[in-house]
Amino acid sequence: MLNLTTVMIGSEDPKTLTEFYTKVLGEPAWQDGGFVGWQAGSGTLMIGAHSEVKGRNDTPGRIIVNFETPDVQAEFERIKGLGATVEHEPYQPDAAQKFWLGTFEDPDGNLFQLASPMPAH
Hints:
With about 120 residues, this protein is of the alpha/beta class. About 20% of the residues lie in helices and about 35% in strands. The two termini are about 20 Å apart. About 15% of the residues are buried. The mean pLDDT is about 95.
């Protein structure tokens, strides 16, 4: 069995991404050797320089990082107030469920979403 523990975002400008995600997630849980990490629930978001990454992400929808929250609208407004670029205002993909998504773009052009807790199946 596999357990997803970390999502790493490589960047040509990790300093700017670190400043951005510090506003969104608070102070990093750790910093080591040019890498920075935040604990978000049971997973970790890590940022660091990557020699093969240049400029902005030109295919931002390929991988989207989701952060779960019981109050998508309030968190969306908080992050929007920090100056984050809004990709999509909160919406319900299926109006029959009480599931919400709202999407932002980070300074490198990567997408991240706020999502309601997943409904039980």
